[in-house]
């Protein structure tokens, strides 16, 4: 090779450039197909700012007096649904999480069964769970509570199982060698290690459930969502604005509360 031959520096090899081009091309094709499937109507897009301005005009001034009359009780019910649903999820998730931890239950069939339960819970959307339990229990807070519980099992159980699998085996081996029974091994060996993560998971899921409890009411599962659905159907926009403001305020307060508690626990 001649000493005068110039070397050119390239950030990516030819195969890497082709791989990047293929990925970008795939995204572009998927976007084009999606736009054709969605059938976006340009006239609606052009008219959207006008419609938003008109909607905001209808929402103002807010009917603040409606809060005590029709919102406060429903908001309290929403918080009850979120809290009881989270507790129900924890009760169900602890045994499922233990069963899904490979280092505790070394039976592949039970591990597979636990993972099936956890995946099934997460794969079904909250509104779908809500529709199912409204059909079973009828409209109201009971359907919402059970919906939140079943929806949260997958989240809480999966993270709890992962925390158990990451536990330091040293204390467990020492307790086992000392002949401690399994409940003592779990309470003295595993639980002290996973307790901070468990309470963090519990608080984080409760925070999420406060938001979801406000949504599932739109399909009849109790709480503030039912009040919002009624106001929307009757075109009471001044009440809709108050309801949305109430939901936003409660969500922010829940976030602040959970953040402060987590700082003290973890």
What does this molecule look like?
This protein has 266 residues and is an all-alpha fold. The chain folds into two domains: 27 residues; 207 residues, MetI-like (MetI-like fold, Orthogonal Bundle), CATH 1.10.3720. The chain contains ten helices and no strands. 30% of the residues are buried. The model has no long low-confidence stretch (mean pLDDT 84).
CATH architecture of the largest domain: Orthogonal Bundle
CATH topology of the largest domain: MetI-like fold
Order of helices and strands: HHHHHHHHHH
Biggest sheet record: none
Question: Which geometry do the CA atoms define?
Answer: extended
Tally of domains: 2
Key structural traits:
266 residues; mainly alpha; MetI-like fold; 2 domains; 10 helices; extended
What would you say about this model in short?
The protein has helices spanning 14-38, 42-59, 66-100, 108-123, 126-137, 141-165, 169-177, 182-216, 224-233, 237-265.
Topology:
Layout: H1 14-38, H2 42-59, H3 66-100, H4 108-123, H5 126-137, H6 141-165, H7 169-177, H8 182-216, H9 224-233, H10 237-265
Helix pairs in contact: 3-4, 3-6, 3-8, 3-9, 3-10, 4-6, 5-6, 6-8, 7-8, 8-10, 9-10
């Amino acid at each position: 090779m001649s000493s005068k031959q110039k070397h050119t520096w390239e950030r990516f090899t030819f195969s890497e450039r082709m791989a990047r081009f293929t990925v970008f091309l795939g995204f572009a094709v998927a976007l084009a197909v999606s736009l054709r499937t969605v059938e976006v109507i340009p006239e609606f897009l052009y008219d959207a700012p006008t419609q938003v301005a008109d909607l905001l005009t209808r929402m103002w001034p807010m009917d603040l007096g409606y809060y005590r009359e029709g919102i406060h009780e429903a908001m309290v019910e929403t918080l009850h649904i979120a809290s009881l649903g989270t507790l129900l999820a924890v009760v169900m998730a602890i045994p499922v999480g233990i069963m899904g931890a490979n280092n505790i239950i070394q039976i592949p069939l039970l591990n597979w069964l636990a993972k099936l339960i956890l995946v099934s819970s997460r794969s079904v959307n909250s509104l779908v769970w809500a529709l199912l339990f409204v059909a079973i229990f009828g409209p109201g807070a009971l359907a919402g509570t059970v919906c939140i519980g079943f929806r949260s099992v997958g989240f809480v159980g999966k993270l709890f199982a992962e925390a158990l699998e990451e536990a330091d085996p040293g204390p467990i081996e020492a307790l086992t060698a000392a002949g401690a029974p399994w409940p003592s091994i779990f309470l003295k060996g595993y639980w002290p290690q996973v307790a901070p993560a468990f309470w963090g998971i519990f608080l984080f899921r409760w925070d999420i459930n406060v938001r979801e409890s406000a949504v599932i009411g739109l399909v009849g599962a109790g709480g503030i969502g039912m009040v919002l659905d009624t106001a929307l159907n009757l075109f009471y926009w001044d009440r809709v604005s108050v309801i949305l403001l109430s939901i936003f305020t409660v969500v922010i307060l829940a976030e602040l509360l959970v953040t402060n508690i987590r700082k003290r626990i973890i």
